Amino acid sequence: MRDKLSALLRKTAPKGTEIGLNVPEDEKFGHYSTNVVFSLAKKSGRPPMDVARELAEKVKLAGFLKRLEVAPPGFINFWLEERAFQDELREILKKKNSYGRGKRKKDKIQVEFVSANPTGPLTLANGRGGFLGDVLSNTLEWNGFQVEREYYVNDTGNQIITLGKSAAAALGLIPAEESFYKGDYVRRWASVNAAFVRRNKEKFLKIGQKAAAEFMRNIKTTLTKKAGIKFNRFTSEEKQIHKKGLTKKAMEIFRKKGLVYKKEGAEWLKTTTFGDDKDRVVITSDGFPTYFLADAGHYLETKSRGFSRKINILGPDHFGYVARIQAVAKLVGLAESTIIITQLVRMLDKGERLKMSKRKGTFITFNELINEVPPDVARFFFLTIAPETHLDFDLDLAKEKSQKNPVYYAQYAYVRALSILKKAKISAAKADLRLLSSREDISLLRMLAAFPEIIEDAASDYGVQRLTRYARELARIFHDFYEKERIIGVPKNLAAARLALVKATVQVFENLFKILGISAPQKM
RNA sequence: GUCCCCAUAGUUCAACGGAUAGAACGGCUCCCUUCUAAGGAGUAGAUCGGGGUUCGAUUCCUCGUGGGGACGCCA
């Protein structure tokens, strides 16, 4: 609906005008409202009200417009014909489980998320990134993009060696060091695999890789089986990047561009050219490629596999990494690169913040959270909050009050709607939709019609919290409708029309739940 | 020390630079012979403090205050 209106305005307003359309809170400002006039007025130096009146004159009342109004200081508000909403209802019933999908687009987008080092269990921030990546990928897919969901596995290098050493130290074979991983999970693994560790003493990479492989299996189970987060590809740093020579290729590109220099025996990349605060080492003085160079190889791989866009979701500890990654993205020729840094998740325990550290092993794992809180609840809770906001998670509250969690509110609305469909003995097939004209009917229709717009918005600004918020709003409007309007027991024609409306509501809920990755319960 | 994120109702969070700042939980008052009350109706309650940019600022810039985090030839 918005697209029709915005097309109409685009035809009328001067070329190149950005058409911004809002949905006002209060219907007295219309179904849609625009503020384009302000920018036009500024350009021409004329009073906004004059420009608004002139533009409003030109926008001939199109078939789907009921009326429009110029409101000070220069808004134009539009009211659509009820017929437009009724047509949209037909559209929902026709498109069914593809209602809300955007046009197919050629762009291939890679979404990389979680990518936690397999040196231990997942943190809550990893889980947050997991849900975000999962739903963002779904959203982009619905909007018509081709999406690959990737987990980049750092399965070699120093942190794996450190893991191997940590296991050896846990058995008392070597003295412990500050940098070692000290969690219970290391001790547990080491004692179960004590024979292997002893047999391979000094081969720390080998020990570390065996441990990492096992931790990786646990990570996969938690993410995919328990939390329902989907991945298409687990990319191995060792196998897919180093062994395929991509680090070398990346190095060649950098050399050709004259951006590499030697200093103190190491080789440095001039990332400062791209806004980084200092240059970065790519080859150490011992002659080894750094993790950063591997990442460059990884970005090169993404580019050469045909992706025009990459979205990388990182945890808060990687903030210092953004500038150099963006430098690399540019160097390998990726058309668009976005990095989303999710902020910390803090756990509250009886009102107190728990300090969490992976190295020290004092933290609540994502796995523990998923075991205690139903996945639907955890997912919805994490996704309601914008990623750049710090999140306080009160575990007691989540468990205790889980019945009151907004996810149940939405699911309950769905169940209520389903229940009507089951009990109604009439058909909605030949309903006369013109009968849907009460305030509650129209509010619900409007909310349903907003669904494609929400997806479009979320896909363009990656604001996934729009979807959970929409779920709550749709539920609220439906509950309200349910209280005030009856379906079963009203005159047949009206009942049929309302039934069509309920059917459409069920459909939109199902599509929405699918994108959000939460279940659509048949009863509660 | 340098850099990043955050600051909105008692609490946890929303709000492309737009009109009267929205929800949820928690308070208080009502509503179940009616399609599932895990629901509905009502009520009280907020933009950290200075400056600036403009028709308009919770949003942008700047200074400050308070919280969280990152800064290794680790990843």
TrEMBL record:
Pfam families for the chain: Arg_tRNA_synt_N (PF03485), DALR_1 (PF05746), tRNA-synt_1d (PF00750)
Ranges spanned by the short sequence motif 'HIGH' region, renumbered to the chain: 116-126
GO biological process: arginyl-tRNA aminoacylation
A single GO cellular-component term on record: cytoplasm
Subcellular location: Cytoplasm
Residues of the Arginyl tRNA synthetase N-terminal domain: 3-80
Keywords for this protein: Aminoacyl-tRNA synthetase, ATP-binding, Cytoplasm, Ligase, Nucleotide-binding, Protein biosynthesis
Reaction it catalyzes: tRNA(Arg) + L-arginine + ATP = L-arginyl-tRNA(Arg) + AMP + diphosphate
GO molecular function: arginine-tRNA ligase activity; ATP binding
Main localization, broad class: cytoplasm
E.C. number: 6.1.1.19
First-level EC class: ligase
InterPro entries according to UniProt: Arg-tRNA-ligase (IPR001278), Arg-tRNA-synth_N (IPR005148), Arg-tRNA-synth_N_sf (IPR036695), ArgRS_core (IPR035684), DALR_anticod-bd (IPR008909), Rossmann-like_a/b/a_fold (IPR014729), tRNAsynth_Ia_anticodon-bd (IPR009080)
The UniProt record lists the keyword Transcription: no
Domain named DALR anticodon binding: residues: 410-524
Quaternary state and interactors: Monomer.
Family: Belongs to the class-I aminoacyl-tRNA synthetase family.
UniProt-listed NCBIfam families: argS (TIGR00456)
Name the UniProt record assigns to this protein: Arginine--tRNA ligase
